[in-house]
Amino acid sequence: MLVIKKETYDEMSVEGAKIVAALIRKKPNAVIGFATGSTPLGLYKELIRLHKEEGLDFSKITTFNLDEYVGLRPEHPESYHYFMWNNLFKHVNADPRHIHIPMGMADDIDRFCEWYEEQIEEYGGIDLQILGIGANGHIAFNEPGSSLGSRTRIKTLTEETRKDNARFFNNNMDEVPKYAITMGIGTIMDAWELLLLASGSGKADAIKMTVEGPITAMVPATIVQMHQIATIIVDREAGAKLTGIYTG
Ligand code: F6R
Asked: Which of 19, 151, 239, 245 sits CB 3.0–4.6 Å from 5 for a disulfide?
């Protein structure tokens, strides 16, 4: 596991984007797993810049997103479809036919989850999975206690996560989805390479446990220690509690 400590959020984002861009240049038809949330926004901004100013070509990549709320239409402003489209895909030349985001409106969610796993396999697996991390160490919607071998499935959101997210739904708990489709921890671990980003003091404890703590399902991100090619990039605040010596 390579841990890179950067000073600022912007430096963290540019460093992360370098890894993604290097993969796309080396393997134009790479399969890339994307995350939503505030953390990767800077990385996506830098990828857009690389596309516009340096011609980074997304036309042959295939994408798989980590998760999506159940019950939100793709055009709902809080859906992860909407997020990905607005924050990355519409600004680059990714081929919509090769973009995969879990379908929160699927009629048969269990069957959809099986299909999602099959699709990942059919494309030869994910080359690089981008991850954020929750303050409690969650990855995707795999909250503490999730099976470390889990696959794509429907999960009930914890009350804590729903309350945290209420601000995006007019502070009305009735509007906050109760379920999400998420890649499992096993699905994430199958990716050839992982890139986890963390920014801000709210993530410092989670990063300390993830990098220097014991592996436990109670902090799902700790499983990243078992991955063969994982890079964790943190800014100064997120890395503040690390005591080991890491690359700058
Ligand atoms: C998003 C996702 C989540 C976030 C995590 C951190 O697709 O899977 O696990 O990565 O909740 O969110 P932010 O980046 O908003 O702090």
From this structure: 239
134 alpha carbon – ligand 1 mean position (Å): 6
Alpha-carbon distances, residue 97 vs 26, 65, 78 (angstroms): 22, 14, 22
Domain count, the chain: 1
What are the pLDDT tens digits along the chain (248 aa)? 999 999 999 999 999 999 999 999 999 999 999 999 999 999 999 999 999 999 999 999 999 999 999 999 999 999 999 999 999 999 999 999 999 999 999 999 999 999 999 999 999 999 999 999 999 999 999 999 999 999 999 999 989 889 888 999 999 999 999 999 999 999 999 999 999 999 999 999 999 999 999 999 999 999 999 999 999 999 999 999 999 989 87
Does this model's pTM top 0.90? Answer: yes
DSSP 232: E
Instruction: Check: CB of residue 228 under 8 Å from CB of residue 190.
Output: no
CA of 135 to the centre of ligand 1 (A): 9
Q: Which residue's entry shows tokens 């729903």?
A: 162
What CATH number should be reported for the domain holding residue 43? Answer: 3.40.50.1360
Residue having the nearest C-alpha atom to atom 11 of ligand 1: 134
* 3-state DSSP assignment of residue 180: strand
**Residue 183's domain spans which residues?**
2-234
Considering the domain boundaries, does residue 55 fall inside one? yes
